[in-house]
Design goal:
2 copies of one chain form a homodimer. Chain A has 11 helices and 6 strands. The first copy, chain A, has helices at 9-22, 35-45, 61-71, 86-95, 111-122, 133-139, 148-159, 163-170, 174-188, 203-213, 219-236; strands at 2-5, 29-32, 49-53, 76-81, 102-106, 127-128. A 6-stranded parallel sheet of chain A has the order 2-1-3-4-5-6, sandwiched between helices. In chain A, strand 4 (76-81), helix 4 and strand 5 form a beta-alpha-beta unit. Chain A is elongated. At the A-B interface, helix 7, helix 10 and helix 11 of A face helix 7, helix 10 and helix 11 of B. Chain A binds a DNA duplex through helix 9.
Chain lengths: 237, 237
Amino acid sequence: MILIADDEERDRNWLKSLLTENFPDNMPVEEAHDGQQVVDMAAKLKPPLVFLDIKMPHLSGIKAAEQILNNLPNTGIIMLSNFSDEVYVRQLWKVVPPNGVFGYVLKNASNEQVVEATKAVLSGDCWIHPGIARVIQRTQNRATNLTTAEYEALVCIALGMTDHAIAKRLYLTEKAVQSRLKSLYAKLGIPGRGESHDTEFNQRCRAVFLSTKRGLINQSELDDWESKLSQETKAST
Amino acid sequence: MILIADDEERDRNWLKSLLTENFPDNMPVEEAHDGQQVVDMAAKLKPPLVFLDIKMPHLSGIKAAEQILNNLPNTGIIMLSNFSDEVYVRQLWKVVPPNGVFGYVLKNASNEQVVEATKAVLSGDCWIHPGIARVIQRTQNRATNLTTAEYEALVCIALGMTDHAIAKRLYLTEKAVQSRLKSLYAKLGIPGRGESHDTEFNQRCRAVFLSTKRGLINQSELDDWESKLSQETKAST
DNA sequence: AGCATATCCGGGGTTTACCCCAGCCAATTG
DNA sequence: CAATTGGCTGGGGTAAACCCCGGATATGCT
């Protein structure tokens, strides 16, 4: 039994036919179309393998993985994603248990790669798409990997908050915020005011641009953060 | 004869089988896998209908459409896109001739919608995906539609440039740049310094955030702009 | 012509974002 | 234990971003 979760019908059909052809022993293939549903179905069906699209309504694939692994730690998880965004790799690393079994394939993967990943995870190995190998590399390099503090600050400036607003929200001094931002700029390799020769940068906006380019943040994640933010400010009034 | 262009094999196959089933009279279906190739093939084959993915290597679907329509103004064009980004609608409006025939469908469209769009364009009508109707609305509303000047400034701040750098690049005064930005902020509905009660915003970053959210700009477009920028600065030294 | 709009430019302000420097505390590591 | 690292705090400064105002030009519409 294999459980797949994706909100796009076309992708579900593609994956389902691929699996039924290549893994007839693991039939049937069950389908879910959002994050909450796949968690419920996994609890009942206890499948050995679950495919999760990251971008799904109600509950993201990553959070769904977290809940599934809470109940059934031995479930094999294969994440499907459209992009090699570093945010997701960050989050995954926290969710997956130390010796957890999982795979990560991009949606532009060839059929052979998906089959390969499925075989690997079913037999207890990991399979990581080559396209995100360098991303994982970066998340473990001390000089470029962002700390949680820096990441929080990054999200805030990407939402367009001022230093003052960030300080209030994170219960910090403005100086502390600026300290976080300074080390963030350094890790992103953004030149300071005097050090640039050809082009001058507004570090704040430049940091957002580079981080988005590198997949450290993306729009759908920022939208989540913003809705949390507006909920909090609403609650505090 | 129908020509389709998409760099993703899976999408090509999906579209091709859909067309051969529903439009047997218009066989065969020819395929191209990037923007340059589809322009060349269109010149030779002179198909009445061309499907274009917007995001393609070498040449975007929009620029490909421009070149195809230059040679063969009566070609029917149907754009395929993953997102309802306002940038693309902006650009498209300039490229398509006043009475040009074209369609615009999002990639999450149902099979029925694609068939419907194809019928419409083949018989000389337009077909616009309902999801971008409101976007088109916005591009024609005076209060929210950005002028070219404001759009240029928006791209520059999104790349992380300072007022001074923007002025140098666009051959303007810093005051002129700030004037553009001011009206940009107004159209995006970003509150000024005194006017906000609950949340304070850094207008510059906030503008980038909101514009990205609304699809006025997106990362791949910005990457194009940045490569142009670095070419120019290289040439001027 | 009169009117509105878009754009650029100027003067003269305030606030915010960034700069350098130094020190303190906590947790980790050899 | 010392040594290092990550993080917060502070003083005191510069420059960039934003504010309000008025004025000039050009364009297009009625």
